[in-house]
Design goal:
single chain, seven-stranded parallel beta sheet, 0% helix, globular, 20 strands
Length: 123
């Protein structure tokens, strides 16, 4: 298990079969999570692409995006101006959408989502 800080302009790909805990994705950085890869307790101010991979306990902050395409996300917290997009075949469980956060679902599955008074969920 490794921990990575992804800086602006950098793309980091988590290797299939690998689990990374506590990664930090700064604004302008990109983290790709392909099939067979897992991230846990990740802090995202940039872009987190969960393409067929697994994300657990991600925190998405202002300007950050978690894009779940065919992958699985559980326990994501979306803070003010953060976004979670769950596209075709994607699954999101137990997402918390905080004030100013946005969760968008498109041909996706979601369960256990909690939306605060100032949060937004789009289907």
């Amino acid at each position: 298990m490794t921990t990575v800080t992804v800086v602006p302009g950098q793309t980091h790909i988590v290797a299939p079969g690998q689990t990374e805990i506590g990664d930090i994705v700064l604004a302008g950085g990109t983290l790709d999570v392909p099939l067979g890869a897992t991230i846990s307790n990740t802090f995202v101010a940039g872009l987190d692409n969960v393409f067929l991979g697994t994300a657990i306990g991600t925190t998405v902050v202002g300007g950050g995006i978690e894009d779940v395409e065919g992958g699985f996300a559980s326990g994501t917290t979306i803070s003010a101006l953060g976004q979670q997009f769950v596209g075709a075949g994607g699954t999101a469980f137990d997402t918390t959408v905080g004030s100013g956060g946005i969760q968008t679902l498109l041909d996706a599955t979601a369960s256990g989502t909690v939306v605060s008074a100032e949060g937004h969920r789009v289907r």
